[in-house]
Amino acid sequence: MSFSHKISDEYFARAANVIPGGIYGHVAPVAGLPRHFPHYIRTAEGCRFEDVDGNQWLDFMCGFGTILHGYLHPEIESAALAQRQLGAVFNQPSPVMVELAESLTQKVNFADWALFAKNGSDLTTWAVRVAREYSGKPYVVKARGAYHGVDAWCDPGLGGKIKEDKSKVLEFTWNDIDELKRVFSSHRNQISSIILTPYHHAAFSPSVMPSETFWADVETECQSNNIILILDDVRVGGRLNDGGSHKYFDFTPDMAVYSKGLGNGYAISACVGKDFLKDASKEVFLTGSCWNDAVAMAAAIKSLEISHSENVAESILAKGDYFVKGMAEKASENELPFILTGPTSMPYPWFEGDENLFRIQKFCEIAAGKGLYFHPHHNWFISNAHGQNDLDEAIELAGEAMRDLVRLESV
Amino acid sequence: MSFSVQRLLPYATALAIEASSSEFCSRNPNAKHLGVKLLPNQLISLGGSGLCFKDKNLIKAVTSGFAFPQIFDFLANPKNGYESIVTLLRIQKILTSKGDSAEKLAIGLRAGIATTAAFANYDPLSIELLSDFENVVIQFKVEEYDLSLFLYRLEGELWKVNSLNPIERTSAILSFNSPLIASQAISGFFDHLTGIGLGHASVSGNIPLLDKIGYISRLVQRKLPSIL
């Protein structure tokens, strides 16, 4: 099957005239499969979408993680619609802001307060500043290669930088506690916080789970060095445990930031924290033009409610287990060293020995020709809308793609 | 002569000339190869003794098409100097000719990649960006002409350009789908983001490596003079 991208290309050509790069950021064509993925999507429902050329896709990216319950989830859309009929942005916040903060502080076990913005970056950066305000210390520590947003201190891009942007950022290798201890001791009494994702999910490389003792060691080191532990749960939040990924890995951060799955496609992010940081948090200015958007907050309240009532994290992990097992069987049948790394609800695809990525790119290209949206450079996402039939279909088509890949490589 | 980063622009310019002469000589075996030598007192020689420019005059020679070489060096070895000038003029004629040819593209592309290599080797920002990459080979292809050039860095060595892959393994490929697109890329008129999105060029393999090399090449195009 070969998909037409005629209309998609026409839009992109128009975009090229008026938008730098046509499409920018993580969805820029150059970051994916430019001649195999569509540039523009018309609509989506459940776990499937239709591009502007009318091609139908079985999706495994879920809006790069923003969709947790499935596209156009009826209950969430109803909640959003009900709020939209009242209005979205006013001079003052809507009461839904209070309800959402209450919901989060009830559902996240360590959270004594919550506040909201639009993107993960808005609040990862803010949380780092809150830690600085609390401690009076300048440095933040992060894992090498970890993504925490687009602000200057952590932006992984290349342009528009000055050395000072990262002059107060220290790095260590994920899971290397000895290196972390060295970083802490070399900057004693100068580090305000460490910001970490629940597991290491860098782009272009396999995901790495925390070692058995990693989180306990991090907690211990933070406590003995008076360093605030910030959990960047922007991508993973809601996908390992409904109460936050820290519960899955059994540790307790001082602050945590959520975004992607929180509003099931409605732009919202949240930071929650412990009581001892509440005063400091009041001193660090935070605002944005449409950050009081009540529609996104109403969607988030419903999304959280469903996550808890339907045990969504547990459900998508079980679906992920099924999917990963099925994919492993297909790989084995085709004698391909294909593995899915990281948690099964958001697996990262990898061919062993394929450091330069040619093989995964070719596999995803072939899969795209069969209507599977498998990204070659980013972890995939399973939503709660993926049903058994969808997963079976994907596994079968992936098996065909693997056979085609083997055939192609043998020529 | 030890390299000083203050001389990066004239040195990179000279290395582009050297690279274009390497490509030219591979097609014209009797032509003179313009090897670069960095000399004290802000001087650079091309093709051995006889043709030597002040740093600033070399850049002027590229941007305006003409600049006076150092007269004493020319008088010291006029035959060699004359042959070098002839080669320079022949390369200039090819590069400024109308239309595309495999020779023009190969010379232009090799010169462009050589300047990227120069920055990769000597520009502090570029060195930092590429610090994680060793034993890597990037292939640049022009489909219709079946033309390939390789930018590579082997363990412990500097970045280099060649028409042959030194290790028979490629880390990443940038392929221009037509001579016209390749020509636009050499001239700095190719939008890599939209061009790739529209299929005028394709990328595969180690995208983070290509991303960084691409950024450096655009940095070079902004900073360096061009004959085109």
Helix content, binned percent of chain B: 40-55%
SS strand fraction of chain A:
5-15%
Give unreliable regions of chain B as ranges: none
**Principal-axes shape call of chain A:** globular
Mind telling me the CATH superfamily name of the largest domain in chain A? Type I PLP-dependent aspartate aminotransferase-like (Major domain)
Number of domains of chain B: 2
Total helical segments of chain B = 9
User: Could you report the average pLDDT of chain B, rounded to the nearest whole number?
Assistant: 91
Structural class of the secondary elements of chain A? alpha/beta
Q: How can the largest sheet of chain A be summarized?
A: 7 strands, mixed
Tell me which protein chains meet in the greatest interface and how many residues each side has: A-B, 26 and 22 residues
> In sequence order, what are the helices and strands of chain A, one letter per element?
HEEEHHEHEEHEHEHEEHHHEEHEH
Distance between the termini of chain A: 20 Å
Which H/E pattern describes the elements of chain B? HEEEHHHHHEEEEHHEH
- Overall geometry of chain B: globular
Examine the coordinates and then state which fold CATH places here, giving the name of the CATH topology of the largest domain in chain B.
Nonspecific Lipid-transfer Protein, Chain A
The CATH top-level class label of the largest domain in chain A:
Alpha Beta
* CATH architecture designation of the largest domain in chain B: 2-Layer Sandwich
